[in-house]
Each structure stands twice: as structure tokens, then as C-alpha cells.
Design brief:
2 copies of one chain form a homodimer. Chain A is built from 5 helices and 6 strands, in the order ααβααβββββα. The first copy, chain A, starts with a helix and ends with a helix. The longest helix of chain A has 14 residues. Chain A has a 3-stranded antiparallel β-sheet. In chain A, strands 5-4-6 form a 3-stranded mixed β-sheet. The first copy, chain A, has 149 residues and is α+β, with helices and mostly antiparallel strands. Chain A folds into 2 domains: 69 residues, Winged helix-like DNA-binding domain superfamily/Winged helix DNA-binding domain (Arc Repressor Mutant, subunit A); 51 residues, Ferric-uptake regulator, C-terminal dimerisarion domain (Dna Ligase, domain 1, 2-Layer Sandwich). At the A-B interface, strand 4, strand 5 and strand 6 of A face strand 4, strand 5 and strand 6 of B. The structure holds a DNA duplex (30 and 30 nucleotides).
Chain lengths: 149, 149
DNA sequence: TCCTTTTCTTGAACGAGTCAAGTGTTTGCA
DNA sequence: TGCAAACACTTGACTCGTTCAAGAAAAGGA
């Protein structure tokens, strides 16, 4: 867990002004990976009870554009944020409860980076989302299926 | 391009009631791949001027659940639909204009289907989204960069 | 410390999508 | 073909994540 001083340095290193809301947002994203905006607002208000939701939205956008956090948004979900940036990891999303887990890509490094036919597009990122059931929902689903049988 | 009769058969084959809105929605999705809901509503109203948006939403849900259409939703986009189902193709999304193109997966069949560490999840689908610039935006972007230099 | 620029607060607004109640259609069956 | 039940559609209101806008506050360089 990084310290406040480190968060401030991260902001300065990204040429962003150091403000209390931004430090708190950056800290919250580090502390709660894959949290949605509302959860981040709650976490931030643990430190700064009076921050506006707009400040959090603005901070998240600034941090995302600066590359300090990464925004992910699986289909049907609200925006979520994580602090693990710069590597090529992907996500596993539970269809039942929406839980998100990290996953390193199967074949090592950027396996899907090149489409077989890119249609003339210049591709800069390949995003992989695995869909399935988390361990808890998987168990629940199996037992409910058993009950039906 | 499939005929109305074929669309009706597709609906019946999926155990769905055959209604004019559903046939029109299915037809519209076939005619306009990657269209968003509003575009589909417009297309449907070319045939049936009085359909409600709710009917289109309901139809799209029914068709999606029946597997006759596929719903895609890249981060930051509204829901889009396509009729190409049953294969393992992915999508290329233009960061600038939002255009979506189809892409067959790089290494043939389901290359990313297995995460190296699935965290105990039972995975049933791997969705790949390539991000980049479409040919038109790529050209525009290059020339504007040149102007800046 | 002062000034400029950026960021935050406040409060309203937007828009894709959903909910709910009632009406209209489709379909299976007599 | 006609009927009944189930399902789908219309209408209209509503939710909620997110954005917009104007003015107040704060950060950082001079």
C-alpha cells in the first residue's frame, strides 16, 4: 500500500496538480481495485467528507488520462477503476454477481494483440474480458441446478 | 439478405412468437450490423411507423436471449447489436469515431479462451475488443499531427 | 504574498435503459 | 373457424450513471 507522499509524487510526475481530492481518489482506487465510482466516492468521503461527486468524477478522468489509473467497463456494468496499469492483464467477470478478478493473458504477452484481419485499422490495444461464474456463484448455481433435477 | 419468411422461421425455431415488431427488429439487425438501439428503432419504423421504443427494447432482449442476435457494448458506448452469431469473432473499435468492424481471432480458434490463472472462475466466453483508429480517422490523425510538427 | 490558471462546489440537466398498468395479438385447442 | 389464455405491445413515468455550467476556492509560479 502506497503512502500519501507517494501518491503526491505520482500526481506530480504526471504533471497533475496535487489536490486533496485527487490524492484521496488515487488512494481509494489503490485500496479498492475494480471499485465503481460510487464506491470510490464513499471511500474518498471517509477522508474528506465534503468532496462533491463531481470532484471525484473529474479526478478519475484526470487520473485515467494521465495513465495513473485504468478505467474498465464490462458490458452492462458501470465504470470501474483499478490502479494496476502498464501491464497487459485482463479481467474475469462473473455473469451472476459482477465480481471482477484479474487475469494474466493466457499465452504470455499480448497474444491477441494482432487481429488476423485488422480491416485497415491501426490497433493499439487488445482488451480481453473473460465471462463466467465466480467460485461462489458457480457453487450456488450447481446446487440450484441439482435442486431442480 | 434473408427474407421475411426466413426471419419468421428463425423466430419460430427459437420458440419465440412471431410478431411484426420482432420480424422488423431481426431484419434491421441483419441489415445494419453493429447498430445501436436508436438506429434500430429508426430502421424498424421505416416498416412499422408506430412501434414503440419499448417494443424494440423488448424484442432485442428476447432475440439476444434466444441467441438470434448478439449484444456488444464496448466501454463508453451504448449497446449495439449484430446478427452474426455462433462463431468466435471479435471486434475492432475506433477510438475516434466509434466505428466497429469484425475481426476473426488472431490465432485461429479461441486463443484467449483459457486464462493462465482463472482464479477459480468457470469461464464460458472470452471476449476480445481491439482498440485503435479506423482507416479514415487514422489518416486524419496523421495529417493533423503533421500540421502540429 | 499575489496573480493566473486550474480545480472544486453546487445544482441542474441529459439520455440510455427500465418499470408498470392496461390494451392488443398470437397461438393452441376445441 | 372461434375461443381462451398467454404473451407482447403501447403509453407514460421514472431511475440512475454521468455530464454540463457558473461561480467560488485552491494550487503553483512570479
Amino acid at each position: 500500500m502506497a503512502t500519501t507522499v507517494e501518491f503526491r509524487q505520482m500526481l506530480r510526475g504526471a504533471a497533475l496538480r496535487v489536490t486533496r481530492p485527487r490524492v484521496a481518489v488515487l488512494s481509494a482506487v489503490h485500496a479498492h481495485p475494480h471499485a465503481d465510482t460510487e464506491s470510490i466516492i464513499s471511500a474518498v468521503r471517509g477522508d474528506l467528507p465534503k468532496v462533491s461527486h463531481q470532484a471525484v468524477y473529474d479526478s478519475l478522468r484526470a487520473l485515467t488520462e494521465a495513465g495513473l489509473v485504468r478505467r474498465i467497463q464490462p458490458a452492462g456494468s458501470v465504470a470501474r477503476y483499478e490502479a494496476r496499469v502498464g501491464d497487459n492483464h485482463h479481467h474475469i467477470v462473473c455473469r451472476s454477481c459482477g465480481t471482477i478478478a484479474d487475469a494474466d493473458c493466457a499465452t504470455g504477452e499480448a497474444p491477441c494483440m494482432t487481429a488476423s484481419d485488422d480491416g485497415g485499422f491501426s490497433i493499439d490495444e487488445a482488451e480481453v474480458i473473460y465471462w463466467g461464474l465466480c467460485p461462489a456463484c458457480s457453487t450456488a448455481h450447481r446446487s440450484s441446478s441439482a435442486n431442480l433435477a
